[in-house]
Structures are given as C-alpha cells and as structure tokens.
C-alpha cells in the first residue's frame, strides 16, 4: 500500500503524462491487462482513459486493472485512472 506522501509524489509526476490506454465499451480483456502490465514494467506510472461509451463503473475498472497487474491505484479523477507499479528492471521513481 502507498502512503499519502507517496501518492502525492506520484500524482505530481503523473500530472504531465498523457493516457496511453483507453477502455471502451468492450471493457477490459486479458490482452489489455497484459499490455498494461508490460507498460507498467517500462514506465512504472501510467494513465488510462475511460471512454464515454464504457458501460462499466470506473472504480470497478480501476480495481480490476490493479488486481490483474498487481499495481496500485494512485488516483481516479474524472475518466482517468493513474496506476503505479514498481519496476523490476527499469526502476525510475524513488518513493519517500
């Protein structure tokens, strides 16, 4: 679990990022979870956009992605989910 201080740091770093994945009306599938997991390994911190035509609740989507990738939910703001997962090989973010 991330502390409040760690989440604040990650939110400030995520502010300048653009979403690199979109969840549409088909929701989440195994392939998407795999791709997000690979992106988290490379970047550690990513944004995911939820499109207007998505039928599922954004909190449920965030939870499914977090469980599927073993990542932490940093923030859900509007239709954007910010996920963090410490990288094994490409460590870039040092948490306090």
From TrEMBL:
One of its GO terms (molecular function) is RNA binding. Residues 1-96 form the CRM domain. Transmembrane segments: none annotated. InterPro entries: RNA-binding_CRM, RNA-binding_domain, RNA-binding_YhbY, YhbY-like_sf. The keyword RNA-binding applies. Gene3D superfamilies: YhbY-like. Pfam families: CRS1_YhbY. Keywords: RNA-binding. It comes from the Bacteria. This is Ribosome assembly RNA-binding protein YhbY. The gene is yhbY.
């Amino acid at each position: 679990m991330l502390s409040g201080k760690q989440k604040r740091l990650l939110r400030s770093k995520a502010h300048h990022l653009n979403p690199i994945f979109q969840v549409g009306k088909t929701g989440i599938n195994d392939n998407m979870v795999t791709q997000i997991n690979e992106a988290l390994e490379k970047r550690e911190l990513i944004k995911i956009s939820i499109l207007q035509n998505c039928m599922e609740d954004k909190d449920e989507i965030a939870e499914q992605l977090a469980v599927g990738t073993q990542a932490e939910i940093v923030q859900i703001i509007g239709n954007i989910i910010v996920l963090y997962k410490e990288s094994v090989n490409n460590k870039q973010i040092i948490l306090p």
